[in-house]
Design brief:
Length: 289
């Protein structure tokens, strides 16, 4: 498996196809009511994503891909301690990368200098598949040393890295999406994978709700750490952060500049006070719990 990786001929259609399918389903079966016009938000989020993709192309790819190749050749890291069958090494790498990404996600919330950038992702007033790619380019740049440490310590070879990247991309598109799945289907899926209703709770303006559901792929990490929360119906969730509630404050130029300006207390409304929950849930709106 030296140097092998998932071809762009496979991953590009997969990701574009998944985004298209989710965007179509979001219009047919929306899970939450939208605050802003959807097309406008999608264009804005894809613009943020384009800047982020450029940053990754220039700063992550030239570092991480040769590093994974080196790790593979020199047999560095945890997974290279044994001669594992390729399928098992890839599966374990995906699981361990997913766990260490859980840790990174917690850090982006708990470290004020990282939260400054991660808040751009959370300041979206609605949540859909386009939010999945809305990360400030500086947050992506700051994640490069973390990614390098993951590759070296875990022993992530190119094939494992690219399988995980594809899994993660599909997973984040899916669980940020605003698609209403039948609740029974979602409950079964949620036993293993992060799903839209679960991740919706992580994007709530209520701090205790945002401080839960940090997993990005497998739900086992939130279960292990006692950070899983499923008992909030989606109609009760107001998406975003309390400090930025006005659509005029989350336009494209403003969110790109946001981390470099004066910082507001995130969990307070601009006028002071804490946000109230949305209206009581309708009878048909059941939580995953
Ligand atoms: Zn987050």
């Amino acid at each position: 498996m030296k140097g092998r990786k998932v071809s762009a001929w496979v991953s590009a259609p997969l990701v574009v196809g998944a985004f298209g399918l989710l965007a179509w389903l979001e219009r047919r079966r929306p899970l939450r009511r939208a605050v802003e016009p959807k097309l406008k938000r999608e264009a804005r989020n894809l613009a943020v994503a384009a800047v982020g993709a450029l940053a990754l192309r220039l700063a992550e790819q030239p570092v991480i891909e040769p590093l994974a190749a080196l790790v593979g050749r020199r047999r560095w890291g945890l997974l290279k301690l044994w001669r594992l069958p390729a399928w098992l090494e890839v599966a374990l790498a995906v699981i361990l990368l997913d766990y260490t990404l859980y840790a990174w996600h917690v850090l982006t919330h708990k470290q004020p200098w990282l939260w400054r950038f991660h808040v751009v992702h959370h300041a979206d007033l609605d949540l859909d598949a386009s939010t999945a790619v809305r990360f400030h380019f500086a947050e992506l740049l700051m994640s490069v040393p973390w990614r390098a440490a993951q590759v070296i310590v875990l022993g992530v070879a190119p094939l494992s890295l690219s399988v995980w990247q594809n899994f993660l991309f599909l997973s984040i598109l899916f669980h940020h999406s605003n698609v209403r799945l039948p609740v029974g289907v979602e409950r079964r899926l949620n036993a293993l994978f992060v799903t839209p209703r679960m991740h919706g709770i992580h994007h709530s303006v209520v701090r205790e709700e945002t401080d839960s559901n940090w997993s990005s792929g497998l739900t086992v990490w939130d279960r292990l750490h006692g950070t899983l929360r499923l008992n909030v119906p989606q109609r009760e969730i107001v998406v975003g952060v309390p400090a930025y509630r006005d659509p005029e404050e989350v336009t494209l130029p403003r969110i790109l500049k946001l981390p470099f300006g004066e910082e507001r207390p995130t969990w307070q409304l601009p006028g002071g006070g804490r946000p109230a929950r949305a209206a009581a849930p309708a009878a048909e709106d059941r939580s995953l719990a």
